[in-house]
Amino acid sequence: MTDRQWIRDALDRYEGPLLLYARRLTGDAERARDVVQDTFLKLCHQRRAAVQPRLAEWLYTVCRNAAIDVRRKERVMKVVHSEEQAAAGAEANPESAAAGKEQRRRLLVLLSHLPDKQQEVLRLKFQGGLSYKEISRVTGESVGNVGMLLHVGLKGLRARLQDREIEGQVMS
């Protein structure tokens, strides 16, 4: 595979997840696109052999650092309350698709109430598909702390979901 094809494959695989990640960090879709574009431009200037074994980790680290720089320069400190991850495939039943979309929306709202570090590691794990070790290197947190942040974040989401279910039953 040529270097050009390798870059295309990386773009096809990681552009969407990086856009979601960068949007969360920057708070703006346009700035996120700029950050991701810069990330892939930097990839073009890297030696393939040095980056390929840890490509996902490298892309997320470069993207994160660029997004933080953008946020710092523009002094943007806002929380993104809604974002949708593109569905892997179209669902046949429109009712199921609507229910799934609503469930994702509610989950993202609940996620936005967690502390920033918990949100970030949950997104890197479940949207980015990174390992604990890769998340550790992206965020600068220890592997143990990544595990703790994931555990506490998931526990918090579960508790918020249960609270919502109980509220729904009481309101009915």
Detailed description of the structure:
This protein is mainly α. The chain has 2 domains: 1-78, no CATH class; 93-172, Arc Repressor Mutant, subunit A (Orthogonal Bundle). It contains 8 helices and no strands. The protein is globular and about 55 Å long. Residues 75-91 have low confidence and may be disordered.
Quick rundown:
With 172 residues, the chain is mainly α. 76% of the residues lie in helices and 0% in strands. It folds into 2 domains: 1-78, no CATH class; 93-172, Winged helix-like DNA-binding domain superfamily/Winged helix DNA-binding domain (Arc Repressor Mutant, subunit A, Orthogonal Bundle), CATH 1.10.10.
SSE topology sketch:
Elements: H1 3-26, H2 29-44, H3 48-51, H4 55-74, H5 94-111, H6 116-126, H7 132-139, H8 143-171
Question: Going by CATH, what is the homologous superfamily of the largest domain?
Answer: Winged helix-like DNA-binding domain superfamily/Winged helix DNA-binding domain
Q: Total strand count, please?
A: 0
Approximately how much helix is present in the residues?
Answer: over 70%
The shape is: globular
Rg (CA only): 18 Å
What percentage of amino acids are in beta strands? under 5%
Structural class category: mainly alpha
CATH T-level fold name of the largest domain:
Arc Repressor Mutant, subunit A
Question: Helical region count?
Answer: 8
Sheet having the most strands: none
Estimate nothing, just give the exact number of structural domains. Answer: 2
The ordered H/E elements are HHHHHHHH
Q: What would CATH call the class of the largest domain?
A: Mainly Alpha
